[in-house]
Amino acid sequence: DDESEATLRTPIVAVLGHVDHGKTSLLDEIRGSAVTEGESGAITQHIGATAVPLDVISEIAGELVDPTDFDLPGLLFIDTPGHHSFSTLRSRGGALADIAILVVDVNDGFQPQTLEAVDILARTQTPFIVAANKIDTVPGWNPNDHAPTQQTIDAQTDRVERDLNENLYELIGDLSDNDFSADMYWRVQDFQNNIGVVPVSAETGEGIPDLLTVMMGLSQRYMKEEMAVDVNGPAAGTVLEVTDTQGFGTTVDAIIYDGTIRADDEIVVGGVEGPIVTEVRALLRPRPLEEIRTEGQFEQVDAVAAADGIKIAAPDLDDAMAGAPIRVVGDRDVDDVIEEVQAE
Ligand code: GTP
Ligand code: MG
After folding, report:
1. Record's family (predicted)?
2. C-beta of 133 in contact with ligand 1 (< 6 A)
């Protein structure tokens, strides 16, 4: 029956925030925890995207996540740069995202690119939570590696807890100044109308169990219908970057958010001079660090299903545009697909 055809894809999570507030460190910490849990093979490190499967999330989150409560396959995180000059990359990440994490240094508070990120999320109506990062830098902090938030806050002195709360309430005030009603995540009932703030440390891993739990819960609760896709259908995606790849010429790094792309598919890609019709020559996935020396930088794969990041090699990609759509033609009329790409 039809019911069994629909598959739930991985929600795409954009990680946004001001420069140096800890976006990459947060993803590194999540990857590192997975390695510690003996799950390094389960983590796929793609083009600016990190896929974390549900069983790994549940291992990191410990008692906070019961995997049988969820039927989404995990989360696909997209890192974005915080430097002011990369605003197009941030918009692209924000537009692509189903949900987002806004990372804010808890001592530094709202900064110019925090505001910019909030504007992008408001414009694209992307639900988000705030990771109040670097809680370990509150003076006098007593670190409890990888502990859930409540547990580590209970282990702080009254003075440290008061200082942390002061910073957190300042953050909540900044959000409210930008017309977002926000509160500590454990007080939020309705995540559609209130922003949950999760205190974390990318350095010690404190609060990461909570962060993953909240993201998983938010996706499951509010995104499930949107995640139901026909993964076997022709792929749809977005170009993140146009790059030169040794041995393959001009390639595009893309996020696939619907369907499947195969290594010999005909595709249409948005270009400077209009849509480019070409044929996939290779789908390339970066190898784990330890394999690069012996096997080369990339592994060729036969097919990639949503949601995932992948480097696509194909002729005639020189004019491809970052931010442009990619469509697999499949058994459709190529002119219809060209029109679809033009319309986007
Ligand atoms: P851009 O990509 O340049 O926008 O920065 P980013 O947001 O990715 O920040 P990044 O993860 O590179 O971290 C910036 C600096 O902050 C690094 O030196 C990190 O080690 C440090 N840092 C990040 N998170 C934490 C944290 O939770 N605690 C402490 N003490 N340091 C942190
Ligand atoms: Mg970074």
Report:
1. Belongs to the TRAFAC class translation factor GTPase superfamily. Classic translation factor GTPase family. IF-2 subfamily.
2. yes
Contacts of 298 (CB under 8 A, 6+ apart): 245, 284, 285, 286, 287, 311
Per-residue pLDDT tens for 259-286?
999 999 999 999 999 999 999 999 998 7
Residues whose CB is less than 8 angstroms from the CB of residue 208 and which lie 6 or more positions away in sequence, other chains included = 26, 29, 30, 33, 60, 146, 200, 202
Q: What is the mean pLDDT of the chain?
A: 89
Q: What does the pLDDT read at residue 3?
A: 41
* pLDDT band, residue 231 (cuts 50/70/90): confident
Nearest-angstrom CA–CA distance, 226 and 219:
10
Q: Is 134 in the pocket of ligand 1 (CB under 6 A)?
A: yes
Other C-beta atoms closer than 10 Å to the C-beta of 100 total 27
Tell whether pTM > 0.80: yes
176 lines ligand 1 (CB under 6 A): no
CA–CA separation, 265 vs 257, rounded Å?
16
Model confidence at 47, in pLDDT bands (50, 70, 90)? low
**Atom 23 of ligand 1 has which residue's CA nearest to it?**
22
Q: Which tokens in the block code for residue 98?
A: 């189903």
Q: Does residue 107 have its Cβ closer than 6 Å to ligand 1?
A: no
Ligand 1 centroid to Cα of residue 59, in Å, is: 24
Q: Is 83 known as a binding-site position?
A: yes
pLDDT tens, position by position, 20-29: 999 989 998 9
Residue 23 Cβ contacting ligand 1 at under 6 Å: yes
For residue 16, how far is its CA from the centre of ligand 2 (angstroms)?
A: 9
Q: Is 302 annotated as a binding residue?
A: no
- Report d(CA 132, CA 194) in Å as an integer: 16
Residue type, 93: G
